[in-house]
Design goal:
Layout: E1 2-3, E2 7-8, E3 14-16, E4 18-21, E5 29-32, E6 48-49, E7 61-62, E8 67-76, E9 79-86, E10 88-93, E11 98-103, E12 111-117, E13 124-128, E14 134-140, E15 151-157
Parallel strand pairs: 6-7
Antiparallel strand pairs: 1-4, 2-3, 4-5, 8-9, 8-15, 10-11, 11-14, 12-15, 13-14
């Protein structure tokens, strides 16, 4: 496990630390711990475990509670593109307001998916056709018609 030296403010508050764990996943999983500790607190003996028990242990990170996929998608001229991502290999444009997010590393069938729009006015978003290799995201205008709208997608769990 590698550890990046934390950045602290003058009052001692931890404002940024990145923890990398290469032992539990094929690719790098990471936790960006913003404002994790108060003055005098220390980040020591960080462990990442597999499946969380029904009563999780305090101070333990569980692999199945970390993001396994995330992506920021932007549209330009009707074509979706990846702004930034983790564990996304590509996007497939399935038509107006219908974008398929393809995973670089497949997930198992047990994961939670959350999508949100990058827009201030009301619109609708849904995930459909979720599999171990991809999630399809559909975005709609208020009239119910498909519309290309920038979105964010995050998936927790699903680690193989």
């Amino acid at each position: 496990m590698a550890y990046t030296e934390p950045t602290t403010q003058t009052n001692g508050t931890l404002i940024d630390a990145t923890i990398y764990n290469r032992d539990l996943v094929d690719n790098i999983s990471y936790l960006n711990a913003n404002k994790l500790a108060k003055s005098g607190d220390t980040l020591t003996d960080v462990s990442v475990s597999g499946v969380a028990p029904s009563t999780p242990t305090a101070g333990t990170l569980y692999r199945d509670s970390l993001l396994s996929v995330w992506v920021s998608v932007s549209y330009s001229g009707g074509t979706p593109s990846i702004v930034d991502d983790y564990n996304v290999s590509s996007l497939t444009d399935n038509g107006n307001g219908h974008c398929q997010v393809n995973f670089a590393t497949s997930l198992n069938s047990t994961y939670a998916c959350m999508a949100t729009l990058d827009i201030s006015s009301p619109r609708l978003i849904a995930t459909v056709g979720d599999t171990t290799a991809k999630v399809e995201v559909q975005t709609f205008d208020l009239g119910g018609g498909n519309a290309d709208i920038n979105f964010y997608l995050g998936i927790v769990g699903g680690w193989q």
